[in-house]
């Protein structure tokens, strides 16, 4: 079935131990056989020795919890013989398999904290564990928290103030209590999304400029985009302030209204988002 990381925390470390012990067993058997050779010709007849101790790089999922869980999981992997582990930036509670929709990533800094915790555990245990930082942001469409400014460029918000009094989560809760079917719920969601005018803030700013009577539209957009980009890490507060300076009026943009029923923010992942995260993770990982 799909990998939801809902199995016990020690499942993969136990499998690493199983594989590592098998490798050690074959290595010992080979050493025993070769040590019994009584001549060089007998040793040559066995052929070159096989390196059975292939390094194991294991799947640490999203850490199976908070930072203390990440530390304990790393410790288990090191003790059981892993040469490296890879950890993704999904949430532990909403982890989805690669082919499933609705992938939710954590804020950039939260995953950086995980990587630093792995390194700390490896240092304490005097292990040269290889740390692989993974990102599911290329296909992510949900974010657990809006706390990190590096994510603000990619958070989706409503641009129609008419939905201010009808948040998406409340609309869907009400429809469910009314006994709406799955198809009806999907239709209600599509209608709400169409009405809300969901966009990223820089898209909302561009559309506001294009429909305005500002004479130097291209210059205004260039000024905004020179400071706000996919890798700039400019906070939504600074984006709003810059937009106000450039066009003289505030832009309606609310990323809380479209939040889904479990409180997650809508997020627009993609290649640029993955590059932004890779750049942030790189100093804290080996790969």
Account of the 3D structure:
By secondary structure, this protein is mainly alpha-helical. It has helices at 11-35, 40-45, 67-79, 108-124, 168-177, 182-196, 201-210, 217-227, 236-247, 271-281; strands at 57-59, 84-87, 104-105, 130-133, 142-143, 265-266. Helix 5 (168-177) packs antiparallel against helix 6 (182-196). The protein is elongated, with a radius of gyration of 26 Å. The two termini are 28 Å apart.
Descriptors:
about 290 residues; mainly alpha; 3-stranded parallel β-sheet; 3-stranded mixed β-sheet; 10 helices; 6 strands; about 45% helix
Bulk shape: elongated
Helix content estimate: 40-55%
Mean pLDDT: 95
Low-confidence stretches: none
SSE pattern, N- to C-terminal: HHEHEEHEEHHHHHEH
Class from secondary-structure proportions = mainly alpha
What amount of the residues lies in strands? 5-15%
How are strands sequenced across the largest beta sheet? 1-2-4
Termini separation comes to 28 Å
List the topology elements:
Elements: H1 11-35, H2 40-45, E1 57-59, H3 67-79, E2 84-87, E3 104-105, H4 108-124, E4 130-133, E5 142-143, H5 168-177, H6 182-196, H7 201-210, H8 217-227, H9 236-247, E6 265-266, H10 271-281
Parallel strand pairs: 1-2, 2-4, 3-5
Antiparallel strand pairs: 5-6
Helix pairs in contact: 1-3, 3-4, 5-6, 7-8, 7-9
What is the structure about, briefly put?
This protein is mainly alpha-helical and 287 residues long. It contains ten helices and six strands; from the N terminus they run ααβαββαββαααααβα.
